[in-house]
Structure formats: C-alpha cells, structure tokens
Amino acid sequence: MTGFVDTSALMALLDAGDPRHDATLATWDSIAEKADLLTSNYVAVESFALAQRRIGIGALRTLSADILSAMEIVFVTPDEYAAALATVLAANRRRLSYVDCSSFEVMRRRGVRNALALDRDFARQGFQVLPAATG
C-alpha cells in the first residue's frame, strides 16, 4: 500500500494532547513499516511552521528526524501547482486549503488512493482516509 500523509495527521502525531493523537498514532504504528508513505514538500513546510509555532522547536526536531524521515517527500511540480491553484479558485471556498488541493493533485497524478489524514476534504475527494476523516 502507498499512503499520503497530510499535515493534519502529522500534527496529531506530534501533539499528545490532540484528541486524535491516539487513533493517529495507532494507525501510524500499524502502517509505517509496511506501507510506502509519502508527503509533499508543501505539507512538510506547512507542518514545520505549525509544529514550531504550536508545540515548539522539539516538535520540529521530532517531525524532521523521526516522522518525515520515514517517508518520501515529493516536490510539487509546476503542473500540480497550477492545477491546485485552479481548483481553489474555481471552488471559490475560503476554507478549501491550497496545500490540500496540491496534495490531491500529487495523489492523483501518482495513483495514490490512501491518505493518513484527519481532514474531511480528502474523503470528499474520494480518497480512502485513515484513521478516519473527522475535521
């Protein structure tokens, strides 16, 4: 199985106080060694900024050394960048994340159907979401 890892899951993994931490950690533990995991450079940057601001520099170190190091980080291509921007503008929804739309493009173009994500937009886009879309 190949799975895409979203910022929402990364933040839940890092923050033991997050109500979704235990479910996300259990899912991570069950798939991390047997699945091919990937994320995008956009998700990595977004996660670095959120982890540092919300949790602290220690979380940034953990994210880099222990979590992101366990997956492939793919770089959003110019075509994926443009398609994601077109999707956000066409949707005309303030709460539709550009980073999420870029993730959808990365997943579609690479044939990835599974996402470790806590964001309902992944399920709305037709992806299989683990542990469950809740937010």
Give a brief rundown of this model.
The protein is an alpha/beta fold and 135 residues long. It is 56% helix and 13% strand.
Q: Write down the Rg.
A: 14 Å
Main structural class: alpha/beta
Q: What portion of residues belong to β-strands?
A: 5-15%
Q: State the fourth-level CATH superfamily of the domain at 2-75 and 113-130.
A: 5'-nuclease
Helical content (DSSP H or I, runs of 4+): 55-70%
Let me know the number of strands: 5
What is the makeup of the main sheet?
Answer: 5 strands, parallel
How do the strands line up in the largest sheet? 3-2-1-4-5
Query: How far is it from the N-terminal to the C-terminal residue, by CA?
Result: 24 Å
Q: Tally the helices: what do you get?
A: 7
Helix and strand succession? EHHEHHEHHEHE
Highest-level CATH class of the domain at 2-75 and 113-130: Alpha Beta
The third-level CATH topology of the domain at 2-75 and 113-130 is Rossmann fold
CATH architecture descriptor text of the domain at 2-75 and 113-130: 3-Layer(aba) Sandwich
Morphology: globular
Report mean pLDDT, rounded to a whole number: 94
Features of this protein?
5 strands, alpha/beta, 135 residues, 7 helices, Rossmann fold, five-stranded parallel β-sheet
Topology:
Elements: E1 2-5, H1 7-14, H2 21-31, E2 36-40, H3 41-54, H4 57-67, E3 72-74, H5 78-91, H6 98-110, E4 114-116, H7 120-124, E5 128-130
Parallel strand pairs: 1-2, 1-4, 2-3, 4-5
Describe this structure as you would to a colleague.
With 135 residues, the protein is an alpha/beta fold. It has a domain at 2-75 and 113-130: 5'-nuclease (Rossmann fold), CATH 3.40.50. 56% of the residues lie in helices and 13% in strands. It has helices at 7-14, 21-31, 41-54, 57-67, 78-91, 98-110, 120-124; strands spanning 2-5, 36-40, 72-74, 114-116, 128-130. It has a 5-stranded parallel β-sheet with strand order 3-2-1-4-5, with helices on both faces. Helix 1 packs parallel to helix 3. The two termini are 24 Å apart.
